[in-house]
Amino acid sequence: MSDASSKKSVVAFLPGKMPSWIYSFYLHVIAGFIATAAHYFVMFVLIQFGMTGLLASMLGFCAGAITRFLLSYFHVFSPTAGFRKAMFRFVLALFIQMMANSLLLGTLMTAGLSVWKAQIVTTVALTIFTYIGSKLWVFR
């Protein structure tokens, strides 16, 4: 399936034309849902095996990151950076995101939120920053 046809199938149900940045943000959010599902699935399994919530979230974040990079590179953005360059930048951006994820998650849990409520708030809070960084630097 070509890049263009796979993108069209994702938004086939949307009416009319939309600005390109809205379209790419929409695809970014869809990729984010898929990456978040990978993150939460790994986190859930690891917690079931007795791992602490914070460590399980960090490892789940890594699973989600791999998912997000592949979807973003091949389906969301039109990268001008080569695969290796984009991957290197993505890893640097991910390190910052992982630290922000862990710091915010830990802070919210310390404030009394359960691990899952804290993780959901953290995920939503980081979404816009991830998009901006990806669009303006990672894939350029």
Topology:
Layout (H helix, E strand, L loop, with lengths): L2 H8 L9 H29 L4 H24 L6 H28 L4 H24 L2
Plain-language structure description:
With 140 residues, the chain is mainly alpha-helical. The protein has one domain (19-138). Helices cover 81% and strands 0% of the residues. Helix 3 packs antiparallel against helix 4 (83-110) and helix 4 runs antiparallel to helix 5 (115-138). It is globular and about 40 Å long. The mean pLDDT is 88.
Features:
140 residues, 5 helices, mainly alpha
- What is the mean predicted local confidence, pLDDT? 88
Q: Any idea what the shape is?
A: globular
Q: What composes the largest sheet?
A: none
Compute the separation of the termini in Å.
24 Å
pLDDT < 50 runs, ≥5 residues:
none
Helix content: over 70%
Structural class: mainly alpha
Q: Give the radius of gyration.
A: 16 Å
Query: How do the helices and strands follow one another from N- to C-terminus?
Result: HHHHH
